[in-house]
Amino acid sequence: MRVLVIEDHQRLARLIVAGLTGFGIGSDAFATAEEGLSAMRSISYDALVLDLGLPDRDGLDVIAELRAAASRIPILILTARDGIDERVEGLDRGADDYMLKPFAMKELAARLRALLRRPGGPLGTTINIANMSLDTAVRQVKVDGRVVAISRRELDALEILMRRADQVVSKRILEDSIYGLGEDVTPNTIEALVSRLRRRLEALRAGVSIHTLRGVGYLLKE
Predict the structure, then answer these.
(1) Which domain holds residue 185?
(2) Consecutive 10-residue runs of the chain (222 residues): their mean pLDDT?
(3) Are residues 112 and 134 in the same domain?
């Protein structure tokens, strides 16, 4: 899962990115509406965390623009505005949820997971394939009912591939979903990551395999 955060308070934005990372949720943060909307044009985010008091535009107008463009991205409002009328207006314009500042990071992560478990959302609670299961809430992998150790990056890649089992997943989708915009990603980064994941699954005797389609992407299947 990768989340776009549009929040002009730099310290809070950094705390959100670090906090969500601790809960296994990748994110990119921008201080203005235009920067965030520009990022959305190049990266397919799973959800948007949006501050209403932005320096260049009102967050309510951003919501209205996205919904007018038929964007279905789940939107969670972050706001210091405690007036009920503004919160209601945000929901009426198309936001899915809101949180008042200050807030607990644990609750923010839980609310994002809940949004993405709604019908049509990309996130289910548990994914089961063959003898392997992935609990996305606690970020835990089991093989034959036994909890196994797996690195965070490998777990990120495994979740994406399991959600699209029997479908080809391009390198670009993996790169955009796993790595932030500010991270140094070489052409071989995804290849190396998938190679490590493939070896780990083989060592764990998982009942799935990852196939490489040269120039196209990767396919996970039983």
Answers:
(1) 126-221
(2) 92 93 88 94 89 92 92 90 76 90 91 76 72 84 93 89 86 81 78 94 94 90 92
(3) no
User: Quick one: tokens of 45?
Assistant: 């985010």
Separation of alpha carbons 117 and 125, rounded Å? 7
Domain count, the chain: 2
Judge contact between 217 and 168, C-beta under 8 A: yes
> Which amino acid would we find at residue 205?
R
The bridge status of strand 146-148 relative to strand 140-143 is antiparallel
Q: What is the three-state SS of 150-210? A: CCHHHHHHHHHHHHCCCCEECHHHHHHHHCCCCCCCCCCHHHHHHHHHHHHHHHCCCCCEE
CB 160 within 8 A of CB 174: yes
- pTM for the whole structure: 0.67
